[in-house]
Q: What sequence folds into this?
C-alpha cells in the first residue's frame, strides 16, 4: 500500500535522531526495530541492525536502497528447502556425480605423476 505523496515518506524520528551529527565511517551499528521506516538519503553509509523478530540483522545502506523500507533487507522467514522423495533423489545423484568427478580428477593427477616421476624429464 503506497503512502500518499502529500504526506511524504515515513522516516522514524528516533532513527533520524540517532544518526544526527554522526559520520557514517565512524558510527557503530545502529540497532532499530523500525522496519517500516523508509531509507532517507541521510542514512546512506550507515550500518543498521534491523530486528527481524529474533535477531538484529546488519544492513549497510547504499544509494540504491533510498526509498525502500528497512524491513525489506531483513527477512523474517528463512527458506530451508522443498522436501519430498524426488528432491532427495536429485540431491543424492548430484552428490554421487560430484564424488565421481573428484575421483576422476584425482586419478588423472596420479597417472600424470607416475608418468613423469620427480627428477626425470
A:
Amino acid at each position: 500500500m503506497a503512502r500518499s505523496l502529500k504526506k511524504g515518506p515515513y522516516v522514524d524520528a528516533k532513527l533520524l535522531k540517532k544518526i544526527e551529527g554522526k559520520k557514517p565511517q565512524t558510527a557503530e551499528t545502529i540497532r532499530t526495530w523500525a522496519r517500516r521506516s523508509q531509507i532517507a538519503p541521510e542514512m546512506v553509509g550507515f550500518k543498521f541492525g534491523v530486528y527481524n523478530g529474533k535477531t538484529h540483522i546488519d544492513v549497510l545502506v547504499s544509494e540504491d536502497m533510498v526509498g525502500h523500507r528497512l524491513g525489506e533487507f531483513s527477512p523474517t522467514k528463512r527458506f530451508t528447502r522443498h522436501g519430498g522423495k524426488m528432491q532427495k533423489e536429485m540431491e543424492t545423484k548430484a552428490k554421487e556425480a560430484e564424488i565421481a568427478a573428484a575421483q576422476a580428477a584425482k586419478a588423472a593427477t596420479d597417472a600424470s605423476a607416475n608418468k613423469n616421476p620427480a627428477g626425470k624429464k
Remarks:
- The chain has two domains: 13-73, 83-111.
- The domain at 13-73 is CATH 3.30.860.10 (30s Ribosomal Protein S19; Chain A).
- The helical segments are 13-19, 85-115.
